[in-house]
Specification:
The complex is a heterodimer of chains A (282) and B (294). By secondary structure, chain A is of the alpha/beta class. Helix content of chain A is 40%, strand content 22%. In chain A, a hairpin with a 2-residue loop joins strand 4 (61-66) and strand 5 (69-70). The chains are: A alpha/beta (282), B alpha/beta (294).
């Protein structure tokens, strides 16, 4: 189950005076079960890229293959793809509309042509996956807190049983604890189901804590594609393109400059703690 | 930036400020009463940089809306520059003295051209035309957006739009500016730009700033920090004092910068570091001192 992007280009407003080459020769392989972070400054092409992954947008040139099939082939069923690649937009709670939480989560599966019974089973499972207790199922979605609404919206996508889950800034607008709760829930979901997760985020600290691979976009191209430790070594280049490394990486760099023998490729607080304690005990 | 208090009352003062609202169900029947702000006392001096932190739902935005009389207290009193916000005669004076910037950059700009939007406020105040343009120029320069004065606001980034909104407020020459989570919808660069502009307003222009946020990194230079929880003030102190109380902050659903948390974790493992570390420099200094003593 993999998604392959092969020389993908996208130009907004092609053949007009306002043409913008938003994706430039993108070549990526998204294998099964990876936890990927997608970072990039505003305007780098992240959102454009992500909307190509579930076929919402079509490349100007190049091809996209899902499980070996060209998703823009005239005989390919896009509807099938949309249930396999689930995309959760920013502020997904803006999509909520039904009279109660449970009905809202049933909406997606019903649209896939499932029976009422099957849709309900899916909805129940999805709501459990996002950690929402059944006391909320028959409440109006609009009575919930921001973080809860967000979880309902994510459940709506999970009810489609995607193999790849893409979340565009799932923590936007939440308070610090709310942010941790949503990301922990997503990490737990990934561990339990083996789903592939792509997390689009502006928080280097969040990305460093959860993902095993980071793709850095800059002005429509892939700048780096590697594990977090490697990517954040390039903190100077990242700064030049409007990004940064997690604060913890800068702390270790500062300590190393003062003569402390620590691994400067550290990207999380836990690693930093271990490194510093090790250095102090020598 | 702190200044001596000239008169007895600060620029903003609240006395047992309480705000309740009635919750109704779909049919309009009363379900209950929520006490969004619960007996809050504040006394803010002219020139202070005050931060109000709190998790979503803590009451911080509701509190902020009392300062420029968008909301009126259910109980208690709010004074702005000595004027009671519930006194109708003073409403427009209060709104001129206490300007507010909101969260969503797209909701606050109405002009087709940046300089026209900034001039809107002073124009409504009846400021003479020539002076309007002077104010527009100085406000845009203060937030670093003067080169964009002839641009359409549509093409600006979130951070740039927020800076234009701030310029629009300071063109009215308020004594104090309240910013309600101004960076919540911005990316890290936009956030940095807005925080820098706000600090400059306080440091250079001497405007009192009340910044409501849940991003701890933004408040390091505040004079005073209030942490809200369930409508009341749960913690009050300087940034250093507040940052020292990591476990309490976590219980209040807040977070500290990584450097503060790292120092805290090491301290718990027996490393002799002070609490309330705010910056990387402080951290490296303290840690090198500890390792030097081995």
């Amino acid at each position: 189950m993999s998604l392959i992007l092969d020389h993908v280009n996208y130009v907004y407003g092609e053949d007009t005076a306002l043409a913008v080459h938003a994706l430039k020769d993108i070549n990526l392989v998204i294998p099964d079960g990876q936890f990927i972070g997608l970072i990039g400054h505003t305007g780098s092409g992240k959102s454009t890229l992500v909307q190509h992954l579930n076929g919402l947008m079509r490349p100007t040139s190049g091809a996209i293959y899902y499980n070996g099939e060209d998703i823009h082939d005239k005989d390919y069923e896009k509807k099938k793809l949309r249930s396999k690649v689930g995309l959760v937009f920013q502020y997904p709670e803006h999509q909520l509309f039904e009279i109660d939480v449970f009905k809202d989560v049933c909406f997606g599966p019903k649209n896939l042509g499932l029976s009422q019974k099957e849709a309900e089973l899916r909805a129940y499972a999805a709501l459990k996956q996002v950690g929402l207790g059944d006391e909320y199922f028959y409440q109006s979605p609009f009575d919930l807190s921001g973080g809860q609404k967000r979880r309902v919206a994510i459940a709506g996508v999970l009810a489609m049983k995607p193999e790849i889950l893409i979340l565009d800034e799932p923590t936007a607008g939440l308070d610090p604890k709310g942010r941790d709760e949503i990301l922990d829930q997503i990490a737990k979901l990934k561990e339990e189901t083996g789903i592939t997760v792509i997390l689009v985020s502006h928080s280097m600290e969040d990305v460093a804590k959860y993902v095993e691979r980071i793709i850095v976009m800059n002005r429509g191209s892939v700048l780096y594609d590697d594990e977090p430790r490697q990517v954040f070594q390039h903190y100077k280049e990242l700064e030049q393109v409007g990004l940064a490394a997690p604060q913890v990486t800068y702390i270790m760099q500062a300590l190393a400059r003062q003569g402390m023998e620590v691994d400067t490729a550290v990207t999380t607080i836990k690693e930093a703690e271990q490194e510093i304690l090790r250095a102090l005990s020598h | 930036m702190q200044t001596d208090r000239g008169n007895a009352m600060g620029i903003i003062k609240t006395d047992k400020l309480t705000f309740e609202y009635i919750r109704r169900d779909e049919e309009g029947n009363v379900e209950g009463i929520t006490r969004a702000v619960d007996e809050v006392d504040m006394d803010i001096r002219q020139g202070d940089f005050i931060a109000i932190l709190g998790h979503n739902g803590s009451g911080k935005s509701t509190l902020a809306k009392h300062i420029n009389a968008i909301l009126y207290p259910t109980e208690g009193t709010v004074w702005v520059d000595g004027m009671n916000t519930q006194d109708e005669n003073h409403l427009w004076d209060i709104r001129q003295e206490a300007g507010m910037v909101f969260q969503n950059p797209d909701n606050q700009i109405i002009g087709q051209v940046v300089e026209e939007d900034v001039g809107f406020g002073p124009e409504n105040m009846g400021v003479p035309t020539e002076e309007i343009w002077e104010r527009v120029e100085e406000s845009l320069k203060a937030v670093g957006m003067y080169e964009f004065r002839k641009h359409s606001p549509n093409k600006l980034s979130g951070g740039q739009k927020q800076r234009v909104s701030i310029a629009g407020v300071i063109a009215m020459h308020p004594k104090c500016i309240i910013l309600d989570e101004p960076t919540a919808m911005l990316d890290p660069n936009g956030r940095k730009e807005v925080v820098r502009a706000v600090r400059a307003l306080n440091d250079v222009e001497g405007i009192t700033v009340v910044l409501i946020t849940h991003y701890m990194e933004e408040i390091i230079h505040a004079d005073m920090v209030f942490v809200m929880d369930q409508g009341h003030v749960a913690m009050e102190g300087t940034p250093r004092e507040i940052f020292s109380r990591v476990d309490e902050l976590k219980e209040l659903r807040l977070d500290v910068p990584q450097v503060t948390l790292l120092a805290h974790e090491l301290r718990q493992k027996g490393v002799n570091l002070p609490e309330g570390i705010l910056t990387i420099e402080e951290f490296t200094g303290a840690l090198m001192a500890v390792s030097g003593n081995k």
